[in-house]
Write a structure and sequence with these properties.
The chain is an alpha/beta fold. The protein is 29% helix and 24% strand. The chain starts with a helix and ends in a 5-residue tail after the last strand. 37% of the residues are buried.
Length: 198
Amino acid sequence: MKQGIRQSIIAARQKLTAAERLQFSQAISRRIMQLPAYQQAQTVLGYMSFGAEFASAAWVEQAMQQGKRVLLPRVNSGSRQLELYLVRDLQQDVEPGIWDIPEPLPQRCTRVDDDESIDFILLPGVAFARDGSRLGYGGGFYDKLLARISLPAAAQQPVLAAAAFTLQLRDELPQEATDRKVEWLLTEDEVIHCTAAT
């Protein structure tokens, strides 16, 4: 079932023209910027998009210009975990990595292990529901990362948000007990506060 949802949404997303994706991505970036939880955040964890995803690079650049500490993930293929790096310059500090997704260069970026400093996380995904449910690409990388970051003992939990095109929304999604829901869902059309997020 999950794989069927992934395939249909990825196919629908790829039918968007480059101009539509750009227009939608710009609208989503503006909505993220206006979110109080983002505005108050000092350290944000983002990601570099690939394929027909929400184009995240412009948002990442703006976050840097606003003086936020911007962390980006890099896949450790040995441990199958995401390692986080502080990135200061997208032109110099990032290059295509595993699966051709742009990743931080370890020789240019500082690895950050202080996960508790993260205030705001923008998560990628294939499909989302209004209750905050998220369906990723199936690798479990972000599930492991969130389990590591969002420890119950942490004084401050990071705000979880996701950027998606409206066509990626579903009424409901199959979920596992370990799945974390997002608190905010930002599309080109609306800002959704996912009250069922836990």
